[in-house]
Specification:
Strand content: 25-35%
Largest sheet: 8 strands, mixed
CATH class of the domain at 14-96 and 155-168: Mainly Beta
Helix content: 25-40%
Shape: globular
Radius of gyration: 26 Å
Number of strands: 14
Low-confidence stretches: 1-7, 372-376
Order of helices and strands: EEEEEEHHHEEEEEEEHHHE
Mean pLDDT: 80
Distance between the termini: 29 Å
CATH architecture of the domain at 14-96 and 155-168: Beta Barrel
Length: about 400
């Protein structure tokens, strides 16, 4: 089956849309987080109940209710909701704090750092005070800068501007969003197909539990989903980092959401009996566990991290050698030293470009060529990935699969 790759909106793009609600489902993932899925005639939106400054409306938006939504696009074609307005004019949005508090914090930290480190003296207590103050200032500065990055993100600023327009002068600039076609079940009967088992039906008895493994730096929080499809009980596990609270403007992947009575298709492996793929017909999303697969988003992220570390390590080493040469001479850098440093920067830029260029070619070949057809001699996990990939393309969606482990 030859299927062309559809052109999907850019991940991270912001938009405002007028839509009609079809269903809003809430799912408590832990004691402090409730994930919500809003299905409309213009697409599927995810958001946290806790991201708003007040509780969600009771009753929730019903079927057919008109809404105005501000959101940003996720990689798979769904969207992350930032704010929405109901038909009665009530608006639910996060509490946007002014920037002056964060800027004042940075100014106070800078003033405290200068005041403490300019105090003359070499007493032990003074040295300890400087160390403690320096560490505290570094922590506060990093926390404040992180908040500033989130606050000043262009996507967040555009959505806040549209929200201000909605609150003051009427309708914001609405996008002409074309809804995606509905997803259908796999054209395969339930049972075993080669090394892959397929079970299709309605999800029921969905339960979510969370626990921690390891300790210290190696500690990891794992979330387990238990559900029944047909007459069989299934289990999926995923790191809880998929649902990190705060900074949702940076989110590009849709979270794992399995609602009661969602029509789903589960892809299992005969070798281990575990679920390695979940196709949700409600929102058209495909979730994949790449465990045992040599070509995965995780492996590509590792390769990019290695390339970035190599470039950064080489840059820091050569920069350290240059600074040591300046200090050992006992004089400041002259014109020729700065010229040499500029030449060094150009050289490192060229080396980094070559490293990332080669890495990009490898990632392009691996990420786009291997799952485009179901290899007869491929591994079991690769067959699950290819089946989910073709299912997405067949229903007019982007070739994006969501990694859950």
């Amino acid at each position: 089956m030859n299927v062309s790759t559809p052109q999907s909106p850019r991940a991270g793009a912001t938009f405002c849309v007028s839509a009609r609600c079809r269903e809003m489902t809430q799912q408590t993932t832990d004691e402090s987080t409730t994930l919500c899925r809003l299905r409309t005639d213009k697409g599927v939106f995810f958001f946290y109940r806790e991201q708003f400054e007040r509780a969600l409306p009771d009753p929730a938006p019903g079927n057919g209710e008109p809404l105005i939504i501000g959101a940003h696009r996720l990689a798979d074609g769904s969207a992350w909701l930032h704010w929405f307005q109901r038909a009665d004019g009530e608006i639910w949005a996060p509490q946007y704090r002014p920037l002056r508090g964060l800027l004042l914090t940075l100014a106070l930290v800078f003033a405290l750092t200068v005041a403490v480190f300019w105090i003359p003296g070499s007493a032990t207590a003074l040295i300890l005070a400087k160390i403690v103050t320096g560490l505290g200032c570094v922590f506060v500065t990093c926390w404040t800068l992180a908040k500033l990055v989130v606050r000043l993100h262009p996507a967040g600023r555009r959505l806040r501007s549209e929200l201000n327009t909605l609150q003051t002068s009427g309708l914001p600039t609405l996008s002409d969003t074309t809804p995606l076609p509905s997803a259908a079940a796999l054209p395969l009967a339930d049972g075993i197909h080669g090394d892959v088992g397929i079970v299709q039906g309605t999800a029921s008895e969905v339960e979510i539990t969370q626990w921690s493994t390891g300790s210290g730096r190696s500690q990891q929080v794992v979330r387990r989903y238990q559900l029944r499809c047909g007459s069989v009980q299934f289990t999926l596990t995923t790191p809880s980092s998929m649902l990190i609270q705060g900074g949702f403007v940076f989110r590009r992947r849709a979270p794992l959401f399995i609602g009661e009575k969602d029509p789903i298709a589960l892809l299992t492996l005969i070798s281990d009996g575990e679920v390695h793929g979940l196709l949700n017909l409600t929102d058209g999303l495909a979730y994949i566990s790449y465990s045992g697969c040599s070509h995965s988003p995780q492996s590509r992220r590792v390769l990019l991290s290695i390339l970035a570390f190599m470039g950064l390590f080489m840059t820091l080493c050569l920069l350290g050698i240059t600074l040591h040469d300046w200090i050992s001479r006992g004089i400041g850098p002259d014109y020729w030293d700065w010229l040499q440093l500029m030449e060094f920067g150009s050289f490192m830029g060229l080396v980094s470009l070559m490293l990332f260029g080669i890495g990009g070619l490898v990632l392009t070949f691996v990420g786009w060529r291997f799952p485009t057809r179901l290899l007869p001699n491929g591994s079991e996990v690769e067959k699950v990935v290819a089946l989910a990939y073709q299912w997405r393309l067949h229903h007019g969606r982007s070739p994006v699969l969501i990694e859950i482990s």
